[in-house]
Design brief:
There is one protein chain. Helices cover 72% and strands 0% of the residues. The relative contact order is 0.10. By secondary structure, it is mostly helical.
């Protein structure tokens, strides 16, 4: 029971930190925390390695190890962005995102039948949903 409370408190501290600390410092912290997680969580590390062996069947074990560590690191950086979502404003979106092909969506919607949008799960894909919400707030 106390472990769950401790996890919750740590989670809230991290969320707060992501809202008030500078972005570059947060990335630095995220990389350190991800490296620590990579080091101590053998089960997760082996799971990522197994997945990468499927995706990169020709890769050497050294390459798999390298990519595994970067999976942890990129996830850590992603979490800092996820926790900062409430701070993203128009300036953030104009500096860090680009929308190409809006005309295709407008064309599909012009038929008044709706549209289905598919996205690859790459990078911070939630930003795409945030952009769509900004474009079509109703």
């Amino acid at each position: 029971m106390w472990k769950n409370k401790l996890k919750y408190v740590l989670y809230r501290i991290i969320m707060w930190g992501c809202l008030v600390l500078p972005h570059r410092f947060l990335y630095w912290c995220a990389l350190r925390m991800a490296d620590f997680q990579w080091l101590v969580d053998k089960r997760a590390r082996e799971s990522v390695k197994a997945n990468l062996r499927v995706v990169l069947p020709e890769a050497s074990e050294a390459r798999i190890e390298y990519e595994t560590r970067w999976v942890f690191r990129n996830f850590g950086k992603y979490l800092t962005e996820f926790f900062r979502f409430s701070r993203f404003d128009d300036r953030f979106f104009s500096r860090h995102t680009a929308l190409d092909g809006r005309q295709h969506l407008d064309e599909a919607l012009s038929h008044n039948k709706g549209a289905i949008i598919l996205s690859a799960h790459l990078s911070n894909w939630e930003l795409g949903a945030a952009i769509m919400h900004k474009m079509f707030p109703e």
